[in-house]
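Appendix B. Raw example, untouched.
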Amino acid sequence: MLESLSYNGQLPDSFWQIPAAVYATEVVPLREHAEVLAAVVAEEAARHEVLLYTDHETLRLLGIFPQEGTDAFFGLWETLPDAALNQQVFDQLAAEARRRGYRRLVGPLCFSTYHRYRLRLGPVPSWGQFDAEPVNPAYYAALLTDLGFTPTLTFESRLLQPAVVPTVYDNKAALLAQLQQVPFEFVPLTPDVWQEHEAAIFELVQAIYGANPAYRPVSAAQFGLLYNRAYAEKLCPHTSVLLRERSTGKLVAQSFCHPNYAPLHLPATEPATFQQHYPRLQHRTLLAKTVGVHPDYRQQGLMSYLGAYGMVSFREYYDDIIFCLMRTDNFSRHFTDGFPYETAHYALYAREL
């Protein structure tokens, strides 16, 4: 029986058990960090009202009602392909959102774009799943479409095959030659550098992504749940970089890249590190994950310089590269235009109330 429960400081055990049933027959399982997500919900409950919808066996859903704004959200939605049950739960959620005066229902989004959001669309790509890539049963998109949702933001990931790499280098040769002449310092992003600049990195990330659609700021403490020294340990020190203005010492751009550790099938109790796990990879795919420029320094070619910096060491350490989760209207997507690539598509959905 479907229940609607007010969040009271913890989520029931059944909440974390439902994905096992949903993903039992899926090619790619859900990798969920329950402790981190539970901590996120507990913190965000201070500035959102949170309702839990579940039958404790086949469906779970968070209804998220912010204190500000006209959009309500749904997040951490996992379900078996039961159209009637999903119709019931989303009807209840939509009715509650209307009662509270919200104009749209948006999701899946777990409070902020720092955490799980979007659906992956279409068939499973050749790489299966890279770290933090959305993964879900293929029927999720059809369920939302039948419930009146349409994509409000779309994204894609692009895999460039090894055969393409020499062509990319030839095409970007002039850009590579300019790296030593730019008025910025390239600071390799090692774990020690991350720890030294942690506060500045947090502020830079907030500035870069603050104006993005669906972005909602988080506290430094919540940022640190996911992005910390342990995160820095898995970054590639040869391609990850901070860009610092020479005249002011200000961090103005960032590129967080790391190998695709997924083929190692590491247990949740063994976090990936570049030093320990990169040497174990038989096929080395670089993930270009979080790349951005401070708003005050855009339109100066810095995004292209970040890409060129990664290319300097690429051939020595990697076989191919995935440019991950780019918004389809974002300028960064154009770095790979003109080259053959495999694409995976994603979407964030919305429904007018």
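End of appendix B.
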